[in-house]
Amino acid sequence: MHGQFVWYELQTTDSAAAQRFYPAVTGWGIQKWDAADDYLMWTAGGVPFAGLAQITPAQRAQAITTNWHTYVSVDNVDAAATKATSLGGKIMTPPEDVPGTGRFAMIQDPLGASIAIFTSNNPGPGFDGTPTLGHFSWHELATSDYKAAFAFYSRMFGWQKTSEMDMGGSTYLMFGMKGKPFGGMSTRQAGSSLPPSWLYYVNVRDAKSATASIARGGGKVMQGPMQVPGGDWIAAATDPQGTMFAVHQTAAEAAAGTAATPAKKAKPKAKVMPKQKTKAKKKVTARAKPKAKAKKKAEAKRKSGRR
Q1: pLDDT tens by residue, 102-120
Q2: pTM of the entire predicted model
Q3: pLDDT per residue as tens digits for the range 257-278
Q4: In sequence order, what DSSP letters do the residues of 188-245 get, joined into one string?
Q5: How far is CA 28 from CA 20, 45, 127, 275, in A?
Q6: CA–CA gap between residue 181 and residue 29 (Å, rounded)
Q7: Domain match, 299 and 233 both
Q8: 223 and 276 share a domain?
Q9: 127 and 237: one domain?
Q10: Both 205 and 275 in a single domain?
Q11: Does one domain contain both 25 and 155?
């Protein structure tokens, strides 16, 4: 469907390292793409949903660095690319065919963030706003002017504002389609040296466990895990090659995890504790002392009488 996120791709400097790192964090599988030996696909539940490509020397010469990017479905790639330029955007990779798959192009919005557009030969369902375990479930744009960015993307893809939130000095706008949110946009803090960019969140069963796996695998947790309004848990990180990504645990998954935690056994009642028995012995001993003294006095009197 036009405007839905339909594919994701990791370009990296070390494909082998990525294949070791991400499955431990996300539970993904990996499989080859029949059309190209040097292109692999990430799978969730055995179904491909993203790609993995090694950055070539030619791409390095073009200053392409390790990155995650996404593809948004459009009815016609060529027309969409032309529309992007008319709205102030740029064409980074002109429209071209992917043999047996479809046609794509890479564009840049007027503020500098890049995103790919794609028309499939065999259109299938894209992200409709429903989080699915192992798939990307949130798409976040940090930019220099979120209002200008939203104006561009809403005209390009038909995205609508689903809600917005005051973040204490800034606004977080959530966008999507048919009332279901796909992600959010916000303006970076003044003075930030980071360029406008997208951050993609993978839906995981447990954000805390995922961040522990990130650290064990050589990645770096940049923020979180933390709970956000609504009860979801998130964390932002980089993989061992420095690629930014994030994990997302829904409130429902968090509640299910809490419910699955076994209850602690109740402690024994205090009346059976050894200390109480010790106190009782002390009382008995305390009562016995006067009786012992009385016996000694009586015995002394008897001896005195005999004399």
Answers
A1: 999 999 999 999 999 999 9
A2: 0.82
A3: 665 555 554 444 444 334 444 3
A4: PPTT--SPPEEEEEEE-S-HHHHHHHHHHTT-EEEEEEEE-TTS-EEEEEE-TT--EE
A5: 10, 8, 18, 55
A6: 27
A7: no
A8: no
A9: yes
A10: no
A11: yes
What residue has token string 């990180």?
A: 237
Q: Report how far residue 39's alpha carbon sits from residue 9's, in angstroms, rounded to the nearest whole number.
A: 10
Question: Crossing angle for the helix pair 146-157 and 77-86, nearest 10 degrees?
Answer: 150
Together in a domain, 251 and 291: no
Residue 140 phi/psi, 5-degree rounding, is -125, 130
Q: Which of 57, 37, 55, 2 has the alpha carbon at shortest distance from 177?
A: 2
Please provide the size of the chain in residues: 307
Q: Burial, 232: exposed, middle or buried (Cβ in 10 Å; 0-12, 13-18, 19+)?
A: buried
- On whether both 186 and 299 belong to a single domain, the answer is no
Partners of 32 in beta bridges: 40
Residue 185 sits in a domain whose CATH number is 3.10.180.10
**5-51 pLDDT per residue, tens:** 999 999 999 999 999 999 999 999 999 988 777 899 999 999 999 99
* 265 part of a folded domain: no
What CA–CA distance (Å, rounded) separates 154 from 150?
6
Whether the CB-CB separation of 117 and 109 falls below 8 Å is answered with: no
58 pLDDT more than 70? yes
Structural domain of 249: 5-260
Query: Contact 101/35 with Cβ under 8 angstroms?
Result: yes
